[in-house]
Amino acid sequence: MVIDPNLTPLETGVDVRFIKLGERGEWEQSCIQDNTLRLGYISPFHEDALQGNWKSVREYWLTYRNGDERVASSDVNQIRDFYELPETAVWITFFRRRLYWCRAKREVIRLEDGTRVRHAVPSWSSSDIKGSPLTVENIDGRVTKVQGFRGTICGVELTSYLIRKINGDAQPEVDVARKSLGRLKIDIQELIRGLWWQDFELLVELIFSRSGWQRISVLGKTEKDIDMDMFSPITQKRAFVQVKSSTSASDITAYYNSFKDYPQYSEMYFVFHTIKGSLEGGLRQAERLNLWDTSRIAELVLLTGLVDWLITKRS
Fold it and tell me: What is the pTM of this model?
């Protein structure tokens, strides 16, 4: 993660506006590449807007909207925001499922086609100040819903949330939840380590089955190299699974070498909860080898909804 030295944390309470860059986003790519904000609403009153003569601008748009006061007022308010919001204001837009943000120079420039631009300061960015990407799927829907706004410029809900998001700061309630989740994972690991070996193997099988895998056959007693023969109907992959309550790096290496003698398997999973010594770096990078320690198993117990099963089994 690289922190951009040109970006400074945003202050709470600043003005925040969403801007739609062209009808159906036709200017999105060019504005982001050129580091500009661009406004349509073409009229002969650019100089009046620069001078703050909003009466003339309003009269024009009221006539244009056939006397519709509500729509004309909305038009003028959006145009006025573009001309008058200070350089401290934060502008956001969306492009290719990422949120882009910037501040903008106060100067408003009229282009030959009648549209107007402000230049971004220092540029449009789709990452927070600490370098993490701002993707739509990781942003509250009350912010991203502005993409459906039919006008050009509008306010944004949850501005304090959005400022923290751009600053790369944790949301208070999320921070509390993450700490609680971290403690829960530690507790789950302790429960896993106390499982009888057959119950541990059953837990592993339940994780696979709840993830869409199917056990083809029971092998543990007849095949010394393989505990489970698993198949994924979605990916059409077949997996070689070895489960050990206690193991060592040399054990894993031996089983991995055996796995390479079975061409019918796409990948290998070696699952354990206790290891003697430490894992070698080469094992972690081994091709088609997936290592599940207690930390990974605890994550999967949470993801597959097996916490209650585990608690009941250890009760």
Answer: 0.76
